[in-house]
Automatic annotation (TrEMBL):
This is 2-oxoadipate dioxygenase/decarboxylase. The keyword Oxidoreductase applies. It is an enzyme of class 1 (oxidoreductase). Keywords: Dioxygenase, Iron, Oxidoreductase. The keyword Nucleus does not apply. Its EC number is 1.13.11.93. Belongs to the 2-oxoadipate dioxygenase/decarboxylase family. SMART domains: DUF1338.
């Protein structure tokens, strides 16, 4: 039994996610427009889709954000901050393979109940300063980062208090959320002079974005739409500077994984420490559509088809690219029954009315396998929603927001950054270990969570068919 002296972490996360959304609406008015646009599309679509995917309540509060931190110590602070809101590091994404000098995880809730109440996630990237080959510049960046403190003193006190007493009272939790919001707000005042900013920006725009400000400003908040094609069209119609194509799989009858698009970051006025004014682009808008989580087998097929589709993407216009993608993805089964039968996606099982009437029909020895129970109409299936991210899409989102400035594609960047794919590939497990060392804990493997959910739902449904009482 939970101690009601303390606020439930799910409740703290909900307060925090609402607070972030209000703050970001005030900071980036276009984000407010995006929320309105997505809400109206979701309302139209909800009736058709939510019968397949039952999560009415969470949709209106569902969003993810992203931050980028500069040091292992800063990353460790976020582990402590997010766990208070019931968010843990799930998934490891090495974006250096795609030419972006960061590696990342997503802090998110993991239990079914917590996801249903508010699935707020923060994609958190750690800058890899070791990839700056100019030693003097790297040292300078380190020194600048060492001087900043991204948490208020009161926030640190509250985190320590929470760790000591294993929870926060309602008053302390409200105080905590207010203090935590400060960490994510925008700073129009840089903590370096213009020349330093320019030198870091020259090395990579991301480095300037992470190093030159007082804190890791939230750079986007992404609402979830039920129809990203309709939302993308609306975005273009309302004049938003939208990304050329939607990241992820093509339009399908059965949505899988994650499809995302964004409007580009705008140049914002910055005052530098030496009084100069300049511009910096950081904050953008993104929307996403989520579909079924894929098994390792399904994911391998997805990755292979994406590579195949990407081989000649450059020459194609947006529409031609989507057509091409759809053609390539015709090799990916597109009914829930097939996706289940071929073990490409994760599912929840439910007893049908036929199943309800078959209580105790089987023993552990006679129980058929899942596919047979589905075929015989005793169990029905619904897809388990993908709660995580995609490294190729994430890199595409990063890059579309850097492109308007001096982003240099990986092949031309050899003089300042060592980012060739082969080097990055060889270091993958090593870099994950380093990331985990900085986090202060192991990263949870997403498919472990989905497999567990699928297994538990099968156990519960078949226990009934075997007459086992819980
Ligand atoms: C994070 C970009 C990744 C997504 O939705 O894939 C991301 C960033 O730009 O910091 O948010
Ligand atoms: Ni995002």
């Amino acid at each position: 039994v939970a101690d009601d002296k303390y606020m439930d972490p799910d409740h703290i996360r909900d307060l925090f996610s609402r607070g972030m959304s209000s703050m970001y609406q005030a900071e980036v008015p276009l984000y407010g427009d995006l929320l309105t646009l997505v809400a109206s599309i979701n309302e139209q679509k909800a009736k058709e889709q939510l019968t397949d995917i039952s999560e009415q309540a969470r949709l209106s509060v569902e969003r993810h954000g992203a931050i980028r931190v500069g040091t292992p110590e800063e990353l460790a602070l976020f582990t402590r901050l997010f766990v208070i809101m019931g968010m843990q590091a799930v998934g490891y994404y090495d974006l250096t393979t795609a030419g972006v000098p960061v590696h990342s995880t997503a802090f998110r809730p993991i239990s079914e109940a917590a996801l249903a109440s508010n699935p707020f996630r923060i994609f958190t990237s750690l800058l890899r300063l070791e990839l700056i080959s100019d030693v003097a510049l790297r040292e300078q960046a380190k020194q600048i980062l060492a001087k900043r403190d991204i948490f208020t003193e009161r926030l640190r006190e509250l985190i320590t208090l929470c760790e000591q007493q294993s929870g926060l009272t309602h008053a302390q939790a409200h105080d905590f959320v207010g203090e935590a919001l400060h960490t994510f707000r925008w700073h129009a005042l840089a903590n370096v002079d213009l020349a330093t900013y320019q030198a870091l920006h020259q090395a990579h725009p991301l480095i300037a974005d992470v190093v030159c400000f007082q804190g890791p400003h939230i750079n986007h908040l992404t609402p979830r739409t039920l129809d990203i094609d309709a939302a993308q069209q609306q975005m273009i119609k309302s004049g938003m500077d939208t990304k050329a194509h939607i990241e992820g799989p093509p339009t399908r009858h059965c949505p899988i994984l994650l499809r995302q698009t964004s409007f580009k970051a705008q140049a914002e006025t910055i005052r530098f420490a030496d009084g100069h004014e300049g511009v910096h682009s950081a904050r953008f808008g993104e929307i996403e559509q989520r579909g079924a989580a894929l098994t390792t087998k399904g994911r391998a097929l997805y990755d292979a088809l994406l590579v195949k589709a990407g081989e000649d993407i450059q020459e194609r216009s947006t529409d031609a690219y989507q057509d091409h993608l759809r053609a390539v993805f015709s090799a990916f089964p597109d009914t829930w029954q097939q996706l289940h039968a071929q073990q490409l996606a994760f599912f929840y099982y439910h007893l049908t009315s036929t199943g309800q009437a078959a209580q105790g029909r089987y023993t552990p020895d006679t129980l058929p396998d899942a596919q047979t129970l589905v075929n015989e109409g005793l169990l029905s299936i619904t897809p388990i929603i993908y709660e995580d991210f995609l490294p190729v899409s994430a890199a595409g989102i990063f890059q579309s927001n850097l492109a308007s400035h001096t982003f240099i594609p990986p092949s031309d960047r050899a003089n300042s950054l060592v980012l060739d794919t082969e080097t990055a590939m060889r270091c993958i497990s090593q870099s994950q270990l380093e990331f985990e060392r900085a986090l202060g804990q192991k990263i949870i493997e997403p498919n472990y969570l989905y497999a567990q959910q699928m297994h538990q739902s099968f156990q519960a449904a078949t226990a009934y068919l075997m007459g086992i009482k819980h």
